[in-house]
From TrEMBL:
Its cofactor is Mg(2+). PROSITE patterns: UBIA. It comes from Clathrus columnatus. This is Para-hydroxybenzoate--polyprenyltransferase. Belongs to the UbiA prenyltransferase family. The gene is COQ2. One of its GO terms (biological process) is ubiquinone biosynthetic process. It is found in: Membrane. The keyword Transmembrane applies. GO terms for cellular component: mitochondrial inner membrane. It is a multi-pass membrane protein. One of its GO terms (molecular function) is transferase activity, transferring alkyl or aryl (other than methyl) groups. The chain crosses the membrane at residues 16-38, 59-78.
Amino acid sequence: MSSYALSTSPWVPASYLALFGTGAIIMRGAGCTINDLWDRKLDRAVERTKDRPLARNDITPTKAIVFLGGQLSVGLAVLLQLNWYSIFLGAASLPIVTLYPFMKRITYWPQFVLVPKKSE
């Protein structure tokens, strides 16, 4: 995505690297939060995931949604530092990330849904 933000320059300024790194970490976390919100009931029944905070009821869904709002706000703040094409690509990836947890219920290959996002 850095090449889209910079258009043609072969050199990436440190400020862009910091933005992309921060955005990647924050939005990866937001994707995990969305996944845990949607799957909290299923996670209780799976040995590998039963100890996740939402599955254990250590965190309420309301608190998780507030946390997700914070993550998305930081992600938006990072995204708005970039050019319009990069903003479009970033916004276009949100439905894909949101759809992924649901695809686990109807296919054995839910990762296939993430292919368009990874090809940005």
